[in-house]
């Protein structure tokens, strides 16, 4: 059966690039998901075929039971939130995809395992001018958009605003008033973990193979093993549970080719480490059951039981706000709105800034690994050639010159190598950090939209009371809840700011340190080459 | 009357570039000599118009007396050599062009004054990939080819080989056997001169203006003034007199636009200085009457008389060889041929090496002044923008980070400027020196061809004796003369080698010194930027 996909954003094909223009809302047929470089081959309803950026479309997972047509209830993992909506507490109602998750580990669909786009380091595939990822302006918010779908378009915010607070106080999320304003409760001993030893494993007598990473948390110091698809499962759970309130950064991109090449494994491990470290630093995420399970499960049995429990968790999506217990005074909807606007402005501006830095960084990367070292090599070779020619002159006493010229030539050839390798030494970390922030910042529009939708609902409270739809107690409850939402957002923004200051301080220092070393190394090499020439 | 030009080399137009394909020997009509960038607008006999590289054609100067048709006797300054050939000692026979030179200074055609292509520094006009000068593979040998024309295609080498030695021994050119082989007699006090104070002068009540340079030779320490066209006149004289035996470097290129702009004047003066310094260092050229006249004339009268005398000089072209007095034993034609081959190989190889260095240098120049600093500026601005965004966060205590980020941004913007200016600081001199050597090396094929033609003639000596065309004394004389030619070439090659070693040693040191300073400066700036970040 042909795989269909829903177009999420308008995309205009570049002439002569074998691309296909698509419009938001259009349904296309997926022809090939393995073309690589962030592209998918697709056919529109008019029969035209071409490449579309994979982030611009969402493959429709068709339930075998309900038939081939795409419908509201066939949206992916995000559908789980519907369990907790007005549609009823139907714990059996999760979708086909989730059913698969519940099955034995070996039954997971291996097609989506370990496949990712390598990101900017594969300069052949990714190009800020023409490649797919450069155009994925909304790439990082995609999954969240889908998961928020039931909230934004489905059930009303009142579901949360009027829901009963949970009875289990163990999950409560206190918000304190610190020096910088509202802050989460930070754990006394912060969680951390180290990812090491990627191992190629296989199953089905070697027919299927995958990479298993070893994670060692500082709490137990006992290593656990996880495959990429386990990380992806954790990501889905965190997104489902916290995505309405906290930015959950995307996992490292998918890569289609070279999944067992050393570079790719090293690069993925480095990115998984960065992803885990960021989550470990988050006071809410790192303390959650699902995250603790991922890091500290003792055996397969505990892991599988924990998985099932996490997948049945009902405190997901905006319900999280009902756990927030702020220390500060109650805020009204207008104040919440004002803060939302302020955070929205900031995250939008920072998103622009991060994108610009990523753009110029990618351009610079290409120059430093392409034309620039080629030029230094040619300069070096030109000096070397001249030296060879001079050597053939048979004119006596020019050995000092020819030897110095040869050395100068070799120096420029060495500089070419240094220049070509340098981005991996410095620009790499600057771009990695900014990519992480691009991913985080991509989550905020949705988080802020959730708040805005709640504010709009609270504005209607008077009318709802008049119409007899809610009573004054409900109205009071709504006001109290929206205040909680605002404190949650403030605490999260302050967490974001404090991490941002730490991260940018660290990455800028690293970048500048290595840039200094780079230029100093070249200066020293050239000084040595200079000293080979005879003083006149 | 339409200006006609003879096409010297095949030129194939690039499609879409408004160029005109022409074939060697074709006559075209010159439409516009002022288009600039080394191009001339021309029309072929079929009526097609387009641009042709100015070095590929030779404007035909039609004598008003002899009528409009182009003929052998209408070739330019080089025709003067015919005075000393089998066509007779007709001292009245110099061409129309020379007649003009003999007239009052103001009568010189101002159209060719002060017009030159600015060379590689004008990156808009000159481009090693597409521009006119990049394609002028034979550009520097052009004038010599024309001047050698009477020798190569006109009178036989026997004109020199059998001519009587001159009676005036004052002009004799001794060749000694030094440590490195044959060497010219070097003057005990080397000539040098300094060019300063370019002044814009005008005549015809300001209708015509020009730049006058002040030259101060070390011999008299008395400044003399010269316009560019005087330098051009000197170049023509030296080429005529010495071009068969010594490489006479071309004058700085013609430039059509901006002849009074400061940069152009500074650049031309610098190049005229380099040109004069090189000639001053040459023991034969610097001691010649015409060169001494140029540097030391006392007044207008002495200058004009000297000019007339120089233009009537009969010891020009291959006749120079008859002045050579070698110290070493007589060489035979086979030995001369062997040495010719050796020098030909070397100069060809070095010409290739120099061209390659110029090519990569021009490419590097463009990158360093174009995309690279733009990228550093963008990186700097991206840091600066992030700092501005961070500043708007209202999160307390991040001044250290935002100030350091701003400083880092400014540092990269400064680096952008340093990078853009750097080629002028270092690459400039490397390219200038290599351009000079390209010009010198371009003279050797002709010099070597003169020797080869003489060798061929001497090989015929037996047959000529049998045919009664020459006697045994003539044959002996020929052998003696070709030996002189070889010593002259050896002395010149040794002069070339010794200068080459000096020049490349000097220019490579200068280049590397300034490259070290450049990289060190950037390392230091970045270190200062790094220190603004707080240690974590």
Automatic annotation (TrEMBL), chains A, B:
Which InterPro entries does its entry note?
A: AH/BAR_dom_sf (IPR027267), PX_dom (IPR001683), PX_dom_sf (IPR036871), SH3-like_dom_sf (IPR036028), SH3_domain (IPR001452), Snx9_fam (IPR014536), Sorting_nexin_WASP-bd-dom (IPR019497)
Family, per entry: Belongs to the sorting nexin family.
Listed binding positions for a 1,2-diacyl-sn-glycero-3-phospho-(1D-myo-inositol-4,5-bisphosphate) are 227, 229, 268
List, for all copies, the residue spans of the domain called SH3.
Answer: 1-62
Enumerate the Gene3D superfamilies for this protein. Answer: Arfaptin homology (AH) domain/BAR domain (1.20.1270.60), Phox-like domain (3.30.1520.10), SH3 Domains (2.30.30.40)
Gene Ontology biological-process entries: cleavage furrow formation; endocytosis; endosomal transport; mitotic cell cycle; plasma membrane tubulation; protein transport
Alphabetical GO CC annotations of the entry are: cytoplasmic vesicle membrane; plasma membrane
Ranges of compositional bias, category Acidic residues = 101-113
Source organism superkingdom: Eukaryota
Per its record, how is this protein called by name? Sorting nexin
- Residue spans of biased composition, Polar residues class: 81-100
What species is this protein from?
A: Monopterus albus
Which Pfam families does this UniProt record tie to the protein?
A: BAR_3_WASP_bdg (PF10456), PX (PF00787), SH3_9 (PF14604)
Give the GO molecular function terms: phosphatidylinositol binding
Q: Which residues form the PX domain?
A: 191-301
> Which keywords does this Swiss-Prot/TrEMBL entry list?
Cytoplasmic vesicle, Membrane, Protein transport, SH3 domain, Transport
Outline the segment boundaries, as ranges, of region: Disordered.
68-137
The membrane topology term of the UniProt record is: Peripheral membrane protein
Keyword flag Kinase: no
Q: Give compartment(s).
A: Cytoplasmic vesicle membrane
């Amino acid at each position: 059966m042909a795989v269909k996909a829903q177009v999420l954003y308008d995309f205009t094909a570049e002439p002569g690039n074998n691309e296909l223009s698509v419009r938001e809302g259009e349904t296309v047929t997926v022809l090939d998901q393995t073309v690589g470089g962030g592209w998918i081959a697709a056919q529109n309803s008019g029969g035209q075929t071409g490449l579309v950026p994979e982030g611009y479309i969402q493959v429709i997972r068709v339930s075998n039971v309900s038939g081939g047509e795409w419908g509201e209830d066939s949206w992916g993992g995000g559908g789980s939130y519907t369990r907790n909506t007005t549609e009823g507490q139907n714990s059996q109602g999760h979708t086909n995809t989730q059913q698969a998750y519940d099955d034995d580990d070996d039954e997971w669909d291996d097609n989506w395992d370990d496949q990712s786009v390598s990101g900017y380091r594969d300069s052949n595939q990714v190009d800020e001018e023409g490649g797919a990822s450069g155009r994925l302006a909304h790439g990082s918010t995609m999954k969240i958009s889908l998961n928020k779908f039931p909230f934004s378009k489905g059930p009303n915010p009142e579901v949360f605003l009027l829901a009963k607070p949970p009875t289990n106080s163990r999950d409560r999320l206190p918000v304190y008033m610190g020096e910088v304003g509202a802050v989460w409760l930070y754990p006394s001993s912060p969680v951390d973990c180290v990812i090491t030893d990627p191992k190629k494993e296989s199953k089905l007598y070697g027919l299927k193979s995958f990479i298993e990473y070893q994670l060692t948390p500082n709490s137990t110091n006992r290593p656990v093993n996880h495959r990429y698809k386990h990380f992806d499962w954790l990501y889905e759970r965190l997104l489902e549970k916290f995505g309405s309130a906290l930015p959950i950064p995307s996992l490292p991109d998918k890569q289609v080719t070279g999944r067992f090449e050393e570079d790719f494994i090293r690069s993925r491990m480095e990115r998984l480490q960065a992803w885990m470290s960021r989550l470990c630093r988050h006071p809410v995420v790192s303390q959650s059951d699902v995250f603790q399970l991922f890091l500290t499960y003792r055996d397969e049995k505990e892991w599988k039981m924990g998985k099932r429990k996490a997948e049945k968790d009902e405190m997901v999506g905006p319900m999280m706000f009902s756990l927030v217990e702020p220390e500060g005074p109650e805020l009204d909807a207008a104040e919440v709105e004002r803060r939302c606007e302020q955070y929205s402005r900031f995250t939008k501006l920072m998103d622009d800034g991060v994108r610009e830095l990523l753009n110029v960084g990618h351009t610079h990367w290409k120059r430093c690994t392409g034309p620039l070292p080629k030029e230094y090599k040619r300069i070096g070779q030109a000096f070397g050639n001249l030296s060879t020619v001079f050597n053939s002159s048979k004119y006596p006493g020019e050995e000092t010159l020819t030897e110095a010229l040869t050395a100068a030539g070799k120096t420029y050839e060495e500089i070419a190598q240094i220049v070509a390798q340098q981005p991996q030494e410095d620009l790499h970390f600057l771009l990695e950090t900014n990519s992480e922030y691009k991913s985080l910042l991509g989550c905020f529009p949705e988080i802020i939209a959730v708040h805005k939708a709640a504010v709009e609902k609270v504005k209607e409270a008077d009318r709802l009371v008049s119409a007899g739809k809610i009573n004054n107690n409900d109205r009071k409850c709504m006001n109290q809840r929206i205040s909680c939402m605002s404190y949650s957002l403030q605490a999260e923004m302050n967490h974001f700011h404090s991490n941002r200051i730490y991260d940018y301080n660290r990455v800028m220092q690293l970048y500048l340190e290595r840039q200094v070393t780079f230029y100093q190394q070249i200066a020293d090499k050239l000084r040595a080459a200079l000293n080979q020439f005879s003083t006149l």
